[in-house]
Each structure stands twice: as structure tokens, then as C-alpha cells.
Amino acid sequence: MIRALLLSTLLATPALADEIWVTNESDDTVSVIDVATLAVKATYPTGERPRGITFSRDFKKLYICASDSDAVEVMDPETGAILHDLPSGEDPEQFVLAPDDKLLYIANENDAVTTVVDTQSRKVVAQIDVGVEPEGMGISPDGKVQVTTSETTNMAHWIDTTTHQIVANSLVDSRPRHAEFSPDGAELWVSAEIGGTVTVFDAATQTEKGKIAFEIPGIRPEKIQPVGMLFSPDRTKVFVALGPANHVAVIDAKTFTVERYLMVGRRVWHLALSPDGTKLFTTNGVSGDVTVIDVAALEPLATIKVGRFPWGAAARPTPN
Amino acid sequence: MSALRAAGAIMTRELARFLSQRERFFAALVRPLVWLFVFAAGFRAALGMSIIPPYRTYIPYETYIAPGLCGMILLFSAMQSSLSLVNDRESGTMRLMLTAPWPRWFLLGAKLVAGALVGLVQVAAFQGIAWAYGIHLPPLGYLAALPALALSGLMLGSLGLLLSARVRQLENFAGVMNFVIFPMFFLSSALYPIWKMQEASPWLAWICRLNPFTHAVELIRFALYLQLNAVSLAVTAAAAAVFFALALWGYEPARTRPPKGE
Fold first, then answer.
1. How far apart are CA B17 and CA B113, in angstroms?
2. Would you call A264 an interface residue with chain B, using a CB distance cutoff of 8 Å?
3. Is a pLDDT exceeding 80 seen at residue A109?
4. What is the mean pLDDT of chain B?
5. Is residue A155 within 8 Å of A113, Cβ to Cβ?
6. Phi-psi category of residue A279: left, alpha or beta, with phi > 0 → left and psi -120 to 50 → alpha
7. Where is B231: in which H helix or E strand?
8. CB of A181 within 8 A of CB of A187?
9. CB atoms within 10 A of CB B262
10. Residues 6 or more apart whose Cβ sits within 8 Å of residue A243
11. Is residue A209 part of a domain?
12. Could you report the predicted ipTM of this complex, rounded to two decimals?
């Protein structure tokens, strides 16, 4: 009897699915993609020019950089309602949430500062002067080091999160747009859009361990502009979005060699993995769509139309 | 039973002829491979083609033309078969075959099926090489495409049969190349999607849409991606039936008598 009841409840529950949330820079919206059906199941309005997007650790809150509204918006992912804004400084483009779920590090592109905001008290905790046009934001898995990259100064700034002071600066190639720590915290990967390279640093010593260049037959080198990066779930590979080259590079995380190039839509910006780690989603700005890649087979599966100029992406596991 | 034996004999002869001509097999493979390795590489769609059904994401040009090249193999194979029929008639084998005590449609049908089988063998070899080259389609798609390839082979074979009823001499076959193979292949969706033709000229796009070869290619393309293109299936099947009926009419005894003076 109880079993029958349980079974019927299970059957009655609507199919729950993991989601990928994508900011549409030109539409001022976020699109919600159902990972199971690969269809857009909801679109919610946001502030102006939404770019950076990330969930709180419990996935109850969604933070969105509304660049032209000069605010970080906090959305309830269940309803799509904007709960409140966070002070963000001017023109927030990209941000990173500390592992403790408390502090948000925001790059203020026009002011050359990194703003640190307490998500609970909703107050600015610190503003750190960095290079010109900060954008790439990474944080070590232990939360002790935050890295801001500045697009015009061409540097990665290593910031101590206890003192909020820059402890080191590393020169990288032209226009660094993204910084990503390896899941073990031992390495920092920085992509340089104009330089067309990815530099790997030893995080403990801030010294360069390697540099990766790209070459795709039939595509002019200046089209290859690395931006977003993401480690594969098993940490053996790193995916790098190559901008207007319309490809994602798959890099061996140990040898730093390019294993494969995967064709995606036009001008690929950022990447997100499905919560189960089987699918990779890429935001393709110019073509206004998201390409889904099978992580095990390393093959593009499908491309889904979203809003105009999709930019950032974040994953949310099955809501409960 | 003896009918089966007769059909078997016709098919065995066709297959044996194909297998004994190694150059023919080689030529049948080289043609599409040149298109794949040279033409497609030169076309440089390294940045990806726009998404059109049945594709679900961006594809390189090589992937786009692979189904068209399968169609091309069937087209050339069918014309080769038609050429051999003209040859058979010149050598007298044809009269021998047609005097067998079975209905004409049965004998010509056996010939047609044999020709389509030869085409399928060539397509399979091409797909193997294309796979090694990096054109990976859904694994089940190769199976799903078999009926589509077979029907396309029969449709093009029927067209060949119809032509062989009209073409009297081997020498005239060059005309078949110019007026049948080339227009059919180039004015189709084999090399470019129809929307691209539409940009060049709406007239061209219409000719492409009316071309049965376009529908054979689309039927194969959709089947390779485990989808059914109902319109293309209907057009290909109808074209096969019409061509075969016309060919039978063309092979009426009264029409197959050698020209006067022979």
C-alpha cells in the first residue's frame, strides 16, 4: 500500500530537470534551458546589459551583473523575480563568488577597481585599485586568493582575500578576459583575447608554467580570441571558448596540448557544465544561441536559440 | 523458382561485371573523394554552416556534402548501368535476356535491383573512407539510410533504364553526361543548401526543388540523422515509379527493334 502510494507520488511529480541559465546581453533577459530536453523553458527580464551570472552555493539566489544598470541583481530562480540589488560600483561586467558564499568580487570595467560586496549585509566591504578595464575574475578553491585580470594593463592581479591587498601582478598577453583556478587550486589559467593565448601559472609562486597557442586550419589567427575557460568534471581537460573562431578548444590539463577543436555558434564567450557533468553549454554571442557538447564523446550535440547576444552561463541542479 | 534463378543470374552477372572491373570501382570511389578532399577543403567553411534541418548544430562543409556525394555515387552508378545496357544491346546480350520466358518488367526490374546493389556497395566504401576522414554521423544513421539509399538507387537506376531505351549508341553517352548527370547534380541540394541557391536566384532554387535528385539527397541526408523527410520520400518514390513505367514502355518489343539497316 505504502509502496503503491510512494510510486504514485513519484509518477505524479512533474519531471524535474537540471537547468542552464544564460544572460542575454542585448535583450536584457536571462534564458533558462532545460538540460534534459535542451529547450528554453523560461525567459525572465533583468536589468540592462546582463553579463556575469552565478548562483549562490545553495542555488536559492541568482546573481546577475546588470552592467548598464550599474548593479548586481539578485533573482529568485524559482520565480524569476528580482529580490533586490547589491551595490556594485560602476559598470560591473564579471564577478566571482567566494567559496564561503558571502563575498562577491566584482570587476568594475570603467573605474579600474575590484569591488568586494558582502551579499548578506549588502554593503561594499572594500574597493581595490587594479589595472585598467578589469574583467576576468577567479578565486582559489580555498577562497584565500582572488585574481582580477585587467584587459588594458594586460595583467593578472593576485589579491589576498584577508587583507584585500594586491600581493602580486603577473604580466600576460594582450587583453586578458578570464581567469580560472584549477579545481585543486595549484594552477591559475588566464586567457588573453587579443594575444590569442592561454597562460598557466603556478598559483603558489605566481610563476608561468606554460603557454598555450591555438591554430585551426582555415581560420585566420586573429579570429582566434580565447575568452571563457572551464575544467572538465574529471579535471583532465580544460575547455577554452575561442570567440569569433566559432570553436571551443579541448586542452589536456596535464600536457597543455590542444586535443581537439569543437565547432560551435558564432563568437563563443563563456561556458557552463550541466550539474551531472555530461554536457557542456557554450554561449554564442553573435548567432544568439547556445551549443551543447557531449563531454564524454567531445561532439557538439545541438544548438539552442536563446536571446540576442548570450554572454554568461551558470548551471543549477534539479530544483527541489 | 526458376524466376528467382533468372533474377539471380542477372544480378550475379551485374555484380561480377562490377567486381571484375577494378578500375571502375576505383573510379567510382575517387570521384566523390576528390570532391570531399579537394572541393570541400577549398570551400573553407571552417567557421561553420548555418543550421538547417536535419542538422541540430553548426557543421563543417565536409559534413554537409557527404550525403550529396552518396547521391552522386548512386547517380554515376546508375548511368554506368545504363551505359552497360546500351553495350548489352549492341552486343546482343540484351536480346538474349529479354527473350527469357519471364515478363519484361521482371527482367528489367532484376537488372535495376542489381544496379542499385552495386551502387550501395560503392556508397558503403565511400562512407567508410569518409568516417576515417573524420565525418562522423550518428551510428544508427548508417543503417537508417540504407532504405533511403536503396530507393534513391532504384529511382536513378530507373532513369538510367529509361535513358538506355532512348540512347542507341555508346557514343551518345557523352550527351547523357552533359544533359543528365551534370544538371541533376549541380542543380540540386547536394553541394549547397537551397537557401543559398535562393540567394543567387529564385529560379535556380525552384529548379533545385523540382529536381528529383534533390529529393533523393534530402531523403538520404535526413535518414542519416534518423529523420524522415516525407516530401522527399514521396517525390523520390513517385519519380522511381514514373521513370520505371516509362522505361518499360520504352522497352516494348516494337521499340527495341534494331534500327533499319542493321
1. 15
2. yes
3. yes
4. 87
5. no
6. beta
7. helix B230-250
8. yes
9. 6
10. A193, A223, A224, A225, A226, A227, A267, A268, A269
11. yes
12. 0.81
Do the chains contact at A302 and B48, CB–CB below 8 Å? no
- Give DSSP secondary structure letters for B242-261: HHHHHHHHHT-HHHHSPPTT
B261, part of any domain:
no
Residue A39 forms part of a structural domain: yes
**Interchain contact A218–B (C-beta under 8 A):** yes
CATH number at A261 reads 2.130.10.10
SS3 A7: helix
Task: Report how far residue B234's alpha carbon sits from residue A158's, in angstroms, rounded to the nearest whole number.
Answer: 66
Q: Do B51 and A303 touch (CB under 8 A)?
A: yes
Contact B51 A300 (CB under 8 A): no
| Domain region containing A282 | 19-316
Tell me: pLDDT of A9 over 60. Answer: no
Chain B residues in contact with A299 by the CB 8 A cut-off are 136
Residues A155, A159, A165: CA angle, nearest 5 degrees = 115
Please report the pLDDT score of residue A319 as a whole number: 63
Interface A-B: count of C-beta contacts within 8 A: 38
Cα–Cα distance, A290 to A267 (Å, whole number): 11
Which of B46, B51, B56 is nearest residue A216 as measured by Cβ atoms?
Answer: B46
The predicted structure's pLDDT at residue B81? 86
B56 touches chain A (CB under 8 A): yes
The C-alpha of B53 sits at a distance from chain A's nearest C-alpha, in angstroms, of 11
Sheet holding A258-263, edge to edge: A229-231, A237-241, A247-252, A258-263
Is beta strand A237-241 parallel, antiparallel or unpaired with respect to A207-213?
unpaired
Contact B68, A240 (CB under 8 A): no
C-alpha cell at A58: 545553495
**pTM > 0.80: yes or no:** yes
Q: A217–B58: do the CB atoms touch at under 8 Å? A: no
On average, the pLDDT of chain A sits at 93
- Give contacts of B 140-179 with A, CB under 8 A: none
Residue A3 domain flag: no
Query: Cell triple for residue B94?
Result: 540484351
What is d(CA A108, CA A116) in angstroms, rounded to the nearest whole number?
Answer: 10
Any domain includes A2: no
Exposure b/e, B216-226, CB count within 10 A at least 16 = b: bbbbbbbbbbe
pLDDT at B17 > cutoff 90: no
Total of domains in chain A: 1
Which chain A residue has its CA at the smallest distance from B52's CA? A303
Q: Is B47 on the interface with A (CB under 8 A)?
A: yes
Q: Which residue has the higher pLDDT, A85 or B6?
A: A85
- B31 Cα to chain A: minimum distance (Å): 23
